[in-house]
């Protein structure tokens, strides 16, 4: 069951003009959260905006839960103004679909843009027993984030930019494909823009590599009530609808239709 808590904001960092990292105290959430889950955050005690904002868990450290968000609309604009010492209304951890990295020895983690945020906790946990290869793609140098953080939790880190303005030029999946040909990758984990996810899904199916994909749907309630995050999955010989907030946000790439 998710925990409803008022969590104290103890650290606030501006990673970019429009991207913030918050660290909140919550022993209860921290001890039950798993890589791939998310939080539903009430941005204000006022009537509007009514709906909570779904934000992926970035890192779990002791009694701290960290999340990173991009300011995109009214809700996140309000959230970024919260100050250290204030309490934030949080429901979580949410999501039954989580990353399954156990019994994997050589995994590939691939992310794009702001989709890299949910992948850090996965890499950190998996690093204890697996070789972790990370591939992160961004449009240009100015948009590259968390390079140093991901380097610390990886055995190999590849940073790509579409325009070649930083590190490798091209798409992250191209470098993943090269490495998959040269060594035994026994698991792929992805989060990012839909075109990237489709390419990863197709490649994993072609090479018969187990793959999980984290979807970033707009989830109004986070508990399956509003029905706003429907996605198609294979159920035997037919496609059925399920909801990202309840069955996901992490899905088997062989099951989910994207």
Task: Lay out the secondary structure.
Layout: E1 3-16, E2 19-25, H1 27-32, E3 38-42, E4 53-61, E5 64-70, H2 74-79, E6 87-94, E7 106-112, H3 119-126, E8 131-138, H4 147-152, E9 156-161, E10 168-169, H5 172-182, E11 187-191, H6 194-207, E12 211-214, E13 230-235, E14 238-243, H7 244-247, E15 250-252, E16 256-257
Parallel strand pairs: 7-8, 7-11, 8-9, 9-10, 11-12
Antiparallel strand pairs: 1-2, 1-6, 2-5, 3-4, 3-6, 4-5, 12-15, 13-14, 13-16
Structure description:
This protein has two domains: 3-94, Elongation Factor Tu (Ef-tu), domain 3 (Beta Barrel), CATH 2.40.30; 106-216, Nucleotide-binding domain of ferredoxin-NADP reductase (FNR) module (Rossmann fold). Helix content is 21%, strand content 38%. The mean pLDDT is 92. The longest helix is centred in the C-terminal third of the chain and has 14 residues, at 194-207. The protein has a seven-stranded mixed beta sheet, with helices on both faces. Strands 1-2-5-4-3-6 form a six-stranded antiparallel beta barrel. Strands 14-13-16 form a three-stranded antiparallel beta sheet. The two termini are 28 Å apart. It is α/β, with parallel strands linked by helices and 258 residues long.
């Amino acid at each position: 069951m998710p925990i409803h808590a008022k969590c104290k904001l103890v650290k606030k960092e501006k990673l970019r003009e429009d991207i913030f990292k918050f660290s909140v105290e919550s022993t209860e959430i921290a001890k039950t959260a798993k890589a791939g889950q998310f939080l539903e955050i009430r941005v204000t005690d006022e009537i509007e905006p009514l709906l909570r904002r779904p934000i992926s868990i970035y890192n779990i450290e002791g009694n701290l839960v960290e999340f990173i968000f991009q300011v995109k609309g009214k809700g996140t604009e309000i959230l970024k103004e919260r100050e250290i010492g204030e309490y934030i209304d949080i429901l979580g951890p949410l999501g039954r679909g989580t990353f399954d990295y156990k019994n994997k020895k050589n995994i590939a983690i691939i992310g794009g843009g702001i989709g890299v945020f949910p992948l850090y906790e996965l890499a950190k946990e998996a690093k204890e027993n697996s070789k972790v290869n990370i591939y992160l793609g961004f449009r240009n140098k100015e948009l590259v984030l968390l390079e140093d953080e991901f380097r610390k939790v990886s055995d190999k880190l590849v940073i790509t930019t579409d325009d070649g303005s930083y590190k490798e030029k091209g798409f992250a999946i191209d470098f993943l494909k090269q490495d998959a040909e040269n060594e035994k990758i026994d698991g792929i984990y992805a989060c990012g823009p839909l075109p990237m996810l489709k390419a990863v899904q197709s490649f994993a199916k072609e090479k018969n590599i187990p793959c999980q994909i984290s979807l970033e749907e707009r989830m109004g309630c986070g508990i399956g009530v509003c029905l706003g995050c429907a996605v198609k999955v294979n159920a035997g010989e037919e496609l059925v609808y399920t909801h990202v907030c309840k069955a996901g946000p992490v899905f088997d790439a062989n099951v989910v239709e994207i």
